[in-house]
Design a protein that fits this description.
Four copies of one chain form a homotetramer. Chain A is of the alpha+beta class. The first copy, chain A, is built from 15 helices and 20 strands. In chain A, the strands form five sheets. The first copy, chain A, has a seven-stranded antiparallel sheet. A six-stranded antiparallel sheet of chain A has the order 5-6-7-8-12-13, with helices on one face. The first copy, chain A, has a three-stranded parallel sheet with strand order 16-19-20, with helices on both faces. The relative contact order of chain A is 0.11. Chains in contact: A-B, A-C, B-D, C-D. The interface between C and D is large, with 52 and 52 residues.
């Protein structure tokens, strides 16, 4: 899924002595949602301090910084990006000064009317420091009309597209989900305080308890007077349309997304595949990690035993550079090795979560053939993708077609 | 297994245009055998060039170095060590000059007579640059008596303890295994050349084909005249005594060790556990990665379904530093999260490969209890450890006792 | 002079194939004006690319970046700051998007009405990303009223305080000096193009020829139609008031500042000291580098021979960290050593450019006493400082008084 | 002097609570003698701990290391090398284990019989870890014959060539100078302890007092019983032949070398040049820093005023990398700028310490011509070099000839 962009992780804590440190732990659990940049903004009730930069949480945030962030409210963000568009200016949380003081914003999603809003602002004399659509949100926030409001409803009504948002001011934390609920955002309790997170696995991390999801069209305000929920738009605009990719591969299996266990959902996909596309075989294997849950589901449903068919080399990471540029296919082989003992002479069902360009998949299945598999039956747990997505998943260029063929084409050439 | 030391990885290639680059790939596959230091020595038939340093292969060896190493013979080494004893001087391959020219040595194992030999050498005027027992080997090599020999037999007969060795001279590569065969060393073919490796998974990596293990007491010499095997000691000293920990947890599941598939061996351990210690339960889970193969074996043998019970955070790595020193238990929770949906209200059998100090295990099983497991049945695939080991596994201090209790004590306090 | 802040270096080139690379060289010559951050913005006529960061020019700008900046127009900036206030957000050039497109600004000086302007902007709905007063300038630029202007006059009339500015748009470079001419900015010619620089030494560096200073109250516009000068305010507001510290210590001796050779000016200060405060002595020495020119001037005027009295250790730099925090006085001794052979038994006149807190000076003169000087006569080339400065030199806290005592107090305790 | 190799700096302290930390400061003062590698070895009376590595003292030795070195005896070393031959294995002090325990050696100089001794050792079964000639010394030390001696005389008699040495054992520090006294080594007192240093400026640094030079052929032993001096060879072999380059450019002007003030020596060279090669001129300038002392000497002797003719950019350092490889001449211009006000229309005498290849000098004098000098009279303070040197100064390849022409050739083409 290397060409999907704009998925990010959000984590916020209100009312906990060491909020910044816990946000740090929470972001560790959301790191898979974004490896490009990381940041934490926290407040002591007066000022907002923000540390952010390019890289992993562990690279950007250092323990001494957290010591200087002993604040009761903090929000954090991790950001994914395809190579090339990465840019320190786009790292979040975005912190700005405006009439009411400082505000920090963390955004997961993509606004479809950002360009139009930006042009309006510029025509009226505003300047922009980043290329991020998130900057439009803080400009809206600073509009005198919006500043007079007691809540964010008027502002949020201007936004189109997908947005799960965390706002931090010196005395308040706000969590928002767009009327479609495109991206997840969950609410939890931590002692006397509250937590909001893109995935519930991050709540487990800090010892928080999941309460419920923020609902589509809802804004949840938390301040010293407690927690209050408001729907910022009329009910007719609220049309849930959750992104399926969260369940299929973005999220961690130990998270609840849209109130649903990711692991169980994937097991159900596997079971459904066993039902839809049964085949007589000796063993079910997965392409780790993505295919693990679905493979177990397939195995349980079909009765065909599950076994390990690939071993992953965990040292082949983000920073791996191949000595020779023209041997890029090597990286697939470095990452995964086929387990001959499992597949040799066997009829193998291999489960993966997706096929994007097909080249990586082809290399992987080739490893099985080389290891002596008698038959290779590929099953992909992601449902077919038929239409382009304008809410943050970029399939327009090439992913689209390939994904469609995933369920139409016979894989004769693998 | 964090307090076991002195296990290392060896990889060598003879007769391949880009030997150094392939050794680099091979070491990537052996990285789990040693994260402390890495090194590659190669020769163009005249000089020996060595790059080594502290850290992972990817940190120590950079692509431009490999370009300067376009040599047909190369050996590499990765080294493990407990914190504190790490030392750049002990990084291998060890390269020295002696009367016959340059020689490089890479060693996996521990000599039991190194101290005595060293004292003899020092009494005769020799100097030592490192604290490594490997340095004794090159001193032996340089002895005029040994230099006159046409092979290494006389030298190798002096060594006691465990040693798998690779030697590199400008025109020869030699692989050696001690008379007990304590540590593994396998021989493979790569086109017209040869490969030697601690584990066969590294052969898969470079496209080599496993031929057989170097035998206990055997030295295999490879030069321009081909390959020849010699037993350097008389048959009566050859008493195979393989280290069980290789099969139980050191090695990668996709390797053959002592001619045996590691994955299948661990599955058999799991099956044996199911037979020895059956229990009526709902689900079998593993502590990843170590327990994966045995858990599948247990599941297949018992008929109790296997499922994922822990999710591992792959971003929690070697360099992870906790903001607060006194919260070290946090690291366990950051690394693994229990999968509530799998264990809640269930009778759970959890398979791990070992219990060392017990503290980490206790934290892990605690996660299951917190996630709502009704019953937790722990099964450890490693057989009980009854006697201390003097061949490179350091159990003398504390691991010893704890390992013994692993099969005696009831885990009431978990 | 370690507690003076807000002095920076500007360098811009218009009409030269490798403008960005030459700006890089120019900034090298201006590095002494600011070690905190560095940046270069350049344009290809369409977009503006900016590389900036914390640190020295050589740390921030890497050769490969310059290759991607093969643009005919470029401006650069180096920035000084006291420890603690440093902040990547304040690094310059500041590049923003507004209605007309992109613009980059580099600023040397300090606006006295920045706070008021900022409050007005915020009251009208603007947001601020930095704490720098320079951001006010780009907000002014984006005001619809100002955008309609054909030049920057209306904008520049809003600014109060000290400002030498360079603007870069995709087709134009503009240089501006405030009506007092507080900070320098010089104009030069480079082949068919133009150069603007804080100091002329940077012009020497790129092979440019000094034409003249930008005048107080003047804006110089350079585009494809050539160069044109405009005074943006009426003559009555133009009241030259140059910062004396530029001549006394900020600038390099090989620069012309305010049309005056820095080296000759300092020699004249030395000669004046010889006239004002003569003393019968054996040798004139300087505290290097600051006192060198004045000491030569003093020597020439008084006829007392100049010699080297201190030797500076050039390895004691910015990044020097003392092993023990409580031995900070050691750093003075590491930086300078007294030359016993020059001062022992002699009556020594020592010339320095300034005394700030007095503690460093005290340590230095103590070295001379230890080296055996019979008499130590201190002469400071900087004239007495009687009033606070609101244009970028921060003496309010402590420097003020100390500087005054420099000419009143007898140095009995040295 | 960029192609002279094998000059290094030595510094040792005996009998001072924080010896390692003071050696650190001392090495800072000797940094100009070697920028390639640095190291400190110290002892607590039992073990020897050594920290060394490639780079500057400040890069290699970090404050926390010094805390672990709170030992009363320590020696340190900085090493120079031409690019390419640098090698971590050759960093010093060299620390080895031998029969008597641990010993550390630091060496400044070059042995002329190292190759022969090495071959003898190898023929007898010794191994070598480095390419450094210093390793021969520790092999000699470990010879049973030498071990039986109560002092080092027998060992030192085997050495030929140039060697100033510091030895450190757990209870003793020894300083040695070769019978020619080729390289300097001075003895000083620090409270109740002793200091040995290549240059006395390092003694000033730690507050030590210069006593005298170690004499040619002398070994000075310091242990708990005090200090004792021995001549290790008979008087007939002691033939002082000091390296003139120490006085002419290696050493710092604030050092005493061979009992002589470097600054005064260079002033005398300048005075001698004024006498030997007088010329009617307006101003004397120097190429900083090397020519400073001689230029002052020339000025004082000739009565022609000294002034600053070049300004050096102190930011152009070791790590400077030019954006374009083919513009290497730029580096000269970046480093030095001619001071037009000093030289324009003047008859200029320019003093430098040496001319090596001539290319750099040519660029520099060209700057003066460009700055408008009417006449340029070059005077070089280094005496002509007529014969090759085998004691550590490598002129064989090209420096030799060029240095000779420095006093023969008319510089018509400058």
């Amino acid at each position: 899924m290397s060409d999907v962009k704009e998925y990010c992780g959000l984590f916020g804590i209100y009312g906990c002595e060491d909020a910044a440190e816990r946000v740090y732990y929470g972001l560790y659990s959301l790191q898979h949602r974004g490896e490009e940049s990381a940041g934490i903004a926290s407040t002591d009730g007066k000022d907002i301090i923000c540390h952010k930069g390019m890289g992993l949480v562990s690279e950007v945030i250092k323990p001494p910084m957290l010591k200087s962030l002993k604040n009761p409210i903090a929000i954090g963000h991790v950001r994914y990006s395809t190579i090339g568009s990465s840019n320190i200016g786009n790292a979040q949380p975005l912190v700005v000064d405006y009439y009411k003081g400082k505000v920090a914003v963390a955004h997961n999603g993509q606004l479809t009317n950002a360009k139009r809003l930006r042009e309006e602002f510029e025509a009226n004399g505003s300047i922009f420091h980043t290329t991020s659509d998130t900057e439009v949100i803080v400009h809206l926030m600073a509009k005198p009309l919006h500043m007079m409001q007691k809540n964010l409803s008027l502002l949020l009504q201007q936004l189109r597209g997908s947005f799960s948002l965390l706002f931090l001011t010196p005395d308040e934390m706000v969590g928002v989900r767009d009327p479609h609920g495109f991206r997840p955002l969950a609410l939890g309790r931590l002692n006397d305080g509250y937590v909001m997170a893109s995935e519930t696995c991050a709540m487990d991390q800090v010892g928080a308890e999941y309460i419920r999801d923020i609902n589509p069209g809802e804004a949840v305000y938390i301040d010293k007077d407690g927690i209050r929920s408001e729907y910022y738009c009329s009910q007719k605009y609220i049309k849930p349309a959750f992104c399926v990719f969260e369940l299929v591969y973005f999220s961690r299996p130990d998270s609840k997304i849209y109130g649903e266990s990711v692991h169980l959902f994937r097991k159900k996909l596997g079971a459904k595949l066993a039902e839809e596309s049964p085949v007589d075989a000796d063993v079910v294997i997965s392409v780790p990690e993505g295919g693990n849950s679905a493979a177990i589901g397939y195995s349980h449903a079909s009765g065909i035993p599950f076994d390990r068919g690939f071993i992953r080399n965990h040292y082949v990471g983000r920073t791996f550079i191949l000595p020779e540029q023209d041997r890029r296919h090597r990286i697939v082989e470095l990452k995964l090795n086929a387990l001959k003992e499992t597949v040799e002479g066997k009829r193998v069902i291999v489960i993966d979560d997706s096929i994007v360009r097909g080249t990586t998949s082809k290399s992987r299945f080739g490893l099985l053939r080389k290891a002596g598999a008698k038959e290779i039956h590929v099953r992909i747990s992601c449902p077919p993708h038929r239409y382009p997505c304008y809410y943050g998943i970029d399939f327009q260029k090439k992913g689209n077609l390939l994904r469609l063929i995933a369920h139409q084409k016979k894989f004769d050439n693998f």
